[in-house]
Design goal:
- The protein is mostly helical.
- It contains 7 helices and 2 strands.
- Strands 1-2 form a two-stranded antiparallel ribbon.
- A hairpin with a 7-residue loop joins β1 and β2.
Length: 168
């Protein structure tokens, strides 16, 4: 199978799966494939900094935040589970890139802030990632890139509002 070819399903797909859409399935599968390819490229770029893509995203988020953030705010922005954020924060804290501190109004909660070292690491890795993204998408002109972002935004908005399908 050609890894660069889009994923396609067979012409009998809708016969095998009544109520399904061949085009919708191909779109979903290709979104996943493309996302995994981009994530793999980002992982290669941030690995020399001791980061995972999600760890780099958290570090960037904290570097841009005007004040420390709570784990819930981080979780909501990343759309991941609480335990996942906890594990990522543990890793970043062990590297000395972030620190947890008690919440000033509720000692049961804590806030997370980026350290000076973490801010420097973010300044170092972000240009590397952002420069690399340009050639990844140079197969599309700027108008097509804007259109792609609009289309992806529509899908994201729809998925946020839509209820998951009931299992059969």
């Amino acid at each position: 199978m050609n890894e660069t070819a889009p994923v396609r399903v067979g012409p009998d797909f809708e016969g095998l799966y009544p109520g399904a859409s061949r085009e919708a399935t191909e779109c979903a599968m290709n979104l996943v494939k493309t996302g995994e390819m981009v994530l793999g490229r980002v992982a290669e770029l941030v690995r020399p900094f001791g980061l995972s893509p999600a760890g780099g995203l958290i570090l960037s988020m904290l570097s841009d935040a005007p004040e420390p953030l709570g784990p819930r705010q981080i979780r909501e922005r990343l759309l991941v589970t609480g335990p996942t954020v906890t594990g990522l924060l543990d890793s970043l804290e062990r590297l000395g890139l972030v620190r947890r501190m008690a919440h000033p109004n509720d000692r049961r909660r804590h806030l997370v802030e980026v350290t000076d070292h973490g801010r420097q690491v973010a300044r170092d890795f972000r240009p590397v990632v952002h420069r690399a993204q340009r050639p990844w998408l140079d197969c599309l002109d700027m108008s097509e890139q804007r259109h792609l972002v609009d289309l992806l935004g529509r899908i994201q908005s729809h998925l946020t509002r839509a209820q998951p399908a009931e299992p059969a």
